[in-house]
Automatic annotation (TrEMBL):
InterPro entries: Nucleotide-bd_a/b_plait_sf (IPR012677), RBD_domain_sf (IPR035979), RRM_dom (IPR000504), U2AF_small (IPR009145), Znf_CCCH (IPR000571). GO terms for molecular function: DNA binding; RNA binding; zinc ion binding. Keywords: DNA-binding, Metal-binding, mRNA processing, mRNA splicing, Nucleus, Repeat, RNA-binding, Zinc, Zinc-finger. It comes from Triparma laevis f. longispina. This is Splicing factor U2af 38 kDa subunit.
Length: 278
């Protein structure tokens, strides 16, 4: 393979980032070496294009594709590939926040557990109350496009919640606030997540009720939320944001009104001094 001339690794980083992929210089060097070793039979092509194409896929020898797609990896710190937490993202992950009733249970025991209709109803009501509280708290910082709660029970995914905002700045504001918050006596463990499209993250077999791996599946088992419930919350959140904006505007007007008389008196004293005889 004939590689294009590379004068500076930094130039490669800039070229790849221009394609919408955030990488480090170490990743560039590693991928270029891998491309030389594995694609010697090919001719031509851009190393930057190759790096952008394989980023977050099984061909990526540096970054963990599961972490990139799911925001979690069953190997954790022992994974042979990198789990790069993004410096910014529309999506936040709130780790292990939702308390799954089956957490810590073995799969065989779970399959044998029978749940009464009354108990199922109570659990659903508890979940909806939990979901609503997370949704309304998140909406205080901006428009929330989607909230996903994982029903998985594997250690690396149990209780994970993903909050995707329409705007990255709103996600950053929420992250700053949630880092100082507690829930159920525990500090919220929150960070940016690389996941922005849950279509690639979710288990389609679970959606079709055909997943054979149960709660230990490595793809997201997303807890379903009724559409009418979501619509009612969006309306409530919209009303809350409008009320919040109205109060903020009133507060700004009040501050301007308080500052205005003092400025007028200051200008008046200044004019008096200038007119006074020497």
């Amino acid at each position: 393979m004939v590689l294009p001339e590379i004068k500076d690794v930094g130039d490669m980083v800039v070229e790849v980032e221009a394609m919408g992929v955030v990488v480090t210089e170490e990743e560039v060097v590693t991928e270029v070496v891998a491309m030389v070793e594995e694609t010697e039979e090919e001719e031509g092509g851009s190393a930057a294009e190759h790096l952008a194409r394989v980023h977050g896929t099984e061909e990526d020898k540096v970054n963990c594709p599961f972490y990139f797609k799911i925001g979690a990896c069953r190997h954790g710190d022992r994974c042979s590939r990198k789990h790069n937490v993004p410096a910014f993202s529309q999506t936040l992950i709130l780790k292990h926040l939702y308390h799954n009733k089956y957490m810590g249970e073995e799969e065989e025991k779970i399959s044998k557990i029978e749940i009464s209709k009354e108990d199922r109803f109570l659990r659903e009501e508890e979940f909806f109350d939990f979901y609503e509280s997370i949704y309304l708290e998140s909406c205080k910082f901006g428009e929330v496009e989607e909230i996903v709660v994982c029903d998985n029970i594997g250690d690396h995914m149990v209780g994970h919640i993903y909050v995707r905002f329409a705007d990255e700045e709103d996600a950053a504001d929420c992250l700053t606030d949630f880092k100082e918050r507690f829930y159920d006596g525990r500090r919220i463990d929150v960070e940016f997540s690389p996941v922005t499209d849950f279509r690639e993250s979710r288990c389609r077999q679970f959606d079709d009720n055909t997943c054979t791996r149960g709660g230990f599946c490595n793809f997201m088992h997303i807890k379903p939320v009724p559409r009418m419930f979501l619509e009612s919350m969006r309306g409530e959140a919209g009303d809350a944001r409008r009320e919040q904006k109205r109060k903020a505007e009133e507060e700004r007007e009040k501050r301007r009104a308080e500052e205005s008389p003092s400025r007028s008196r200051s200008r008046s004293r200044s004019r008096s001094r200038s007119r006074s005889p020497p």
